[in-house]
Design goal:
alpha+beta, Rossmann fold, Dna Ligase, domain 1, 5-stranded antiparallel sheet, 4-stranded parallel sheet, about 30% helix
Length: about 300
Amino acid sequence: MKIAILSRNPRLYSTRRLAEAARERGHEARVIDVLRCYMNITSHAPSIHYKGEQLTGFDAVIPRIGASVTFYGTAVLRQFEMMNVYPLNESVAITRARDKLRSLQLLSRRGIGLPITGFAHTPDDIEDLIKMVGGAPLVIKLLEGTQGIGVVLAETRQAAESVIEAFLGLKVNILVQEYIREAKGADIRCFVIGDKVVAAMRRQAKPGEFRSNLHRGGSAELIRITPEERSTAVRAAKIMGLNVAGVDVLRSNHGPVVMEVNSSPGLEGIEAATGKDVAGQMLSFIEKDALAGKTRTRGKG
């Protein structure tokens, strides 16, 4: 198979591992900078050009699209879909997962456990908003934030009011969520491929920090997850329409709650913590699933 890997940086661990895994299995893998692609959007003969050449003959595409380039990256991926190239994750599913508010609403509608979450536009509503999520301490998140950036823990009501007022005053969209105290700064990253959790790790925030992201100095270790956590992660990925997802789960007093569904989960932390060849399992899934015409949306999303 001829496989395109959409990634801005061929030196990133995840990109390197996917290219290595593809070549080890006898496939041709090519890393393509999504922002260097340009498209001919025309009826009957859509095409993608890259550094002066037309991209043709690809059987599958693995999107590794960063949050900062979601709009353009998913447009390029959609063009691949229109050209009948199989995407590991479809453009519409990535767009759905990247919209934090929409993704939480979709998960909520299907009964997935979530932290109590509030969303407001007007500063007049702050007092009731804080009360709605159970009061302080609470977590305030920028809708556009990634890797723990733009996430604040407000430990008192006064601090919560000040931070929410500041964000709303800047005209940015925020979510206000209950703080799951019993999680003690730890979450579980479940790596879902197809209808299975193929690897799971517990991420623990460093002392004095509540965000467990590895980019913020958190540590990771292998963990055995419960059947309920496994089922929750698989269902969350399916609701988003993702074949591959990193589902972040907290252990709360009322069962597992989903914090986020990530459409481009990193491989370095999960492979190091679990010792599993996750990149190889992603390629194995493509080999089984990448049939021409199997894309559900065919660029319509």
